[in-house]
Amino acid sequence: MKDRQVEVVAGNHAVARVAGAVLVVAHRGRDKPTEDAPAVIALESLAELVRAAVEQQPNGPGALVAREATRWLMKHAEQISPGVPIDFGILSTAENGGVAIFLHGAVTAVLAGDGRVERYRGSDAAFTVDRVASVPALGVALFIDDDKGRVPEIPERRGIGWLVEGIAQAGGAIVWSDGARSRSAQAARPDTAEQRAPQHHRTPVAPLPTARIDPEPRQRPRPEPQPAATQASTSMLDSVADQPDPHEADTQIGGTNPAPQPDPDLQRRLEATAKATALTVKVMGFKCARAHPSDPRAAFCTVCGMPVDQTQALIEVVRPPLGMLILDDGMTYMLAADAVLGRDPEHSEAAQRGLIPLKVEDNSGGMSRAHAEIRLINWDVAVVDRGSTNGTRTRPPGFRDWIRLNPNQPMILVPGTEVMLGNRVLRFEPAAPPPFGG
Fold first, then answer.
1. DSSP designation for 39
2. Do the Cβ atoms of 333 and 358 come closer than 8 Å?
3. Which of 264, 294, 377, 394 maximizes the CB count within 10 A of its CB?
4. Residues 394-412 pLDDT 10s
5. Do 155 and 198 form a contact (C-beta atoms < 8 A)?
6. Coil, helix or strand for 139?
7. Rounded-to-10 torsion of CA 246, 247, 253, 256
């Protein structure tokens, strides 16, 4: 994405290009964003996160960007914008050369190809959208949804604006594909006014601040405390996109798997299921100084990593996400509700009971349609083999050998535990950052 033209679209939000990636953050104020606006502070912090990810994985930082952005949401977002969600999107390069899409809140990615348009909407997902897609023929854009949820279309022809590096005030950004230039040149002289593509205003570009190792946001003046808005809690980082079943593929454990190909119809059904399963489970726990619900057994907050007063009385709290499953291709699932995993879990009995179906593509023939379940038991995460033909195996941190689970017997996962289904491996990690961001 580093060499592609990035064109900004007129608007009142904040857009940045850094190390080849494109970021958009919503500014919800009526006035233009200033340097102390939450959107600008968030954009600077996310830009530093992206820059660090690109330095670590320059050939395909998309999966790392998604994982770090998820942790950023848990650690920094509430500090920057107390009580008000931060809507943002990031486009970066995937490991396979495709485009990695990460969305949270009222932001939409639009992929335009030859006669085909696909949309991924952050507002439809239970928590975030984490996708890998092929580079479309025309371009891919990030737009902040307006108050009515409307999303602009990508124009058929590119303009002359080019955001090389830095921050701009805009409503969104378009990353034009290499093949779009020739088509744009052929249609550069329309015969009628109706054929002309809409002209986008160009906005001045400001340099990004020097990146730090840890994307700790700079402090801004804190507003007077306001009552927290009541809203439905999120359910789960949205699940893996559908892929066509491969008939000829490597059958060995740990073999190379193709990058997921998005299926918009299945994606909408999965997101609707996840959104309908709102996080409403109440458990006994503590609250940290920032009022986050936390596991009473932990000395540090489950959400933000800050210390928790262990002498306080137990109270009933709404349980937050308990961690992440990270697939071997970098896809991530946020664990906030029970789920069923397999090669075709959507129509399983478990999905009918309300478990979130998470499809995991497998080319070994060793994964069942509904292979295993992830169950959230109080403050613990457990994996249960559903009596699959080839079994489910786990490997706790520090162990060399895999342990085959007894069917229908839950096993509690500790952070760092790996789970093998067929020839795919998932790793369980906590959602909260290390204490004090260390």
1. H
2. yes
3. 294
4. 999 989 899 999 999 999 9
5. yes
6. strand
7. -50
